Amino acid sequence: MIGSARMCSLTQILLLIALTVAGAIGVTRLKIDPDVGSVFPQDNRMVQLLQGTSAGQQAARSLFLILESPSIEEQLPGLVHRLQESPLVASVDALKAEFDRDRTAAQTAAPLWYLDDQALRELEQRLQPSGQREGIADSLTLLATDPIGGKQALLSDPLGLRWVFSDSLARSLPEALRGDSPYLLNDRRDTAVIRVMGTRDPFDIDYSQALLADLADRLQGFQMQPVGGYAIAQESSTRIKGDLHSSLSWSIPLILLFLIFSTRSWLLPLLILLPVGAAVVWALGLGSWMLGPVTPIALSSAAILIGLGADFSIHFAGRFEEERKKVDCPSALKTTRSHIGRALLGGMLTSSAAFLAISTGAFPGLRDLGFLLVLGLFFSLFATWVFLPLLLQGCESWLKPRGVDGAGLLIARLTDSPLSAPMALILVGLGGAGWIALGSGGLAFDASPERMRPADSAQARASQQLEEKLGFAPLGLTVVLDQRQPIEPLKDGIADLQRTGVIAFSSGAHRDPLGKTQAAKIEQLRKASAGWAQAAEENLRAAGLGPNAFKAGITSWDTRLSANPPSGQSSGTPLFRWKDLSYWRATLHPHATPRSAKERKELQRTIRGSLPSQVEIIDPGGLSDELGPLLASDLQRSLWTCTLAVLLICILSLKSMRFGLIALAPVVCGLGVSLGLLALLEWPLHPGNFLALPLILGLGVDDGLHMVHRYREVGRAAVRTTGTYIWRTTVTTAIGFGSLISATSPAIASLGLLVLTGTVICFLASILLVPYLLRKMTP
Fold first, then answer.
1. What is the pTM for the complete model shown?
2. DSSP state of 575
3. N or C terminus of the chain with fewer C-beta within 10 Å?
């Protein structure tokens, strides 16, 4: 018998070692998928449009730099050259012409066709001998001012033809961008705006930090304010890390102190937490083997597993202590397993049902999260059942039987006091009021990224400053229209939106000036400037410059000025192709970026009122508005599925419909108060706090099951013993998540508040309402 027990223990130890090694190796190879797009449902039309048009990627990878210096304009060519040398940068835009990217490809192919009448006259004059000499003199002046940038500009464009094209574009831009400078400057010309395009998405935090550090190094001596996705990613990462560090630095020591004080043992708390840590390592490690790179939202499963997994160990260790006072260690373990196994299994299955229900939705990120949580809960139960007994046996000599726990006595006195019944009814009233508030007011779901950041963050202020300097929102909305539809209503509608001030300016196919009138003007210019390239070589020679060094630049300009659009093309802007169809495409820039879902909805409603009904509006900032209702629908469906599954599991675990319903009382009250609080305060559920709901559900059901199981075993004495264990799980969870309330990130703070509220209500319902119902509803 002894040999068989030792063989069993050895097998268990070997299995634990194998799991730990596999989990540890898996954790070392665990990779986070920084692509936020992987979280979204790929069959959603808006997601597909954002990917097809690259509008979402362009918005995410745009970083605007606000540079301040008294002589910024003269130094810009050299600064741009420095930034272009960065291996982390895809492109740098400093000229006004470079900001109208919707027409860049068409203008590059046939640039003459996009000049207005004034620019055509200026270009004709510049191509004459006198204009060429003036342009060469200006280029030499630039070379003397900025040797590095001026040399590159002189070689590629000795006549300064680029200014004619940039000035033509500037006249089509908002008032704030007009002026005689080709760069984006303010009126005092001491502040410039440059756009840098990155090569990776900002969700790759390491890349975002490297890019910003590289840019700051290249722009030493200048006051630089970055605005955009990369700066937001770095700011958010720094803020969240600071919040978590601040929270964990005191919450973890406080939890350990509480457990030491509560168990009156320095060793038992460590034994309780070791299986939880092992389960998290096993789940994340094996999950990495099975799922590959995981999304950031799936990685948050670690925090939830610590909160739920600790419950298993606390209940097991508490019951073991209780039994150890009566019998030896092996007998105490055997009795603990036989009495607490059904409650632990029921708690694991109900929580798993909740997470499985969430994972069946349309969002891949939630599917990975659900899978990791179910895997982690299984390992938490396994570690409690196998690993914790080995630890308790191994440390038996240091674990001395303790006296009666003071918290248990206080809880028992409260339950037996005359106040227990009124307090139980108050809990019923609060829970019922919460569900009524939820039913009447509804629960909003807002997936906006703004919900994850403070309203007065540095990036929010910098973004407003940028828009004030530019006079428009730099990242606009994209509208597309099937090419089979006439473009004239699109042109008229956009013109009306610009005339009425709804948008500041626009770019795209509706602004293409191709036609017979433009062709006649271009033909006249080409006749008047025939032979300009040969004349330019003579003028360069007369200025003391060897023409051979400039031959490539002159030839390039001659090719561009001779180019025509493809025969029969009705639009210079390349059409957007999606699902084997071609679309007209335009970009609309409002005066300011809508900051809320309500503002975005109102702007889109106004735009739709002026444009053809067949138009699709693609707003990178509004993706959350599109997906929010879909996620809310997923959660609502999951809630009903989860409710039925949890009810069935509770009934099977307790083998009674009546006792199964009583066990659900804590979670009904906890979720009711938490959701009712959201509805009454009109706080939306968002990606930062919705994970509180399955966590409250798991804790509430776990509390109810343990209390009902023990009450059926020992009657009212259950409150003193099991009530103590529930007290420990509640306090540890409340400290861990309650410490997040002071976080500067609204998402983290709201998560902490919800979990704290829900767990406290679940605890009170477990020690007051459940015993009250058991007394009233059982013989």
1. 0.74
2. P
3. C
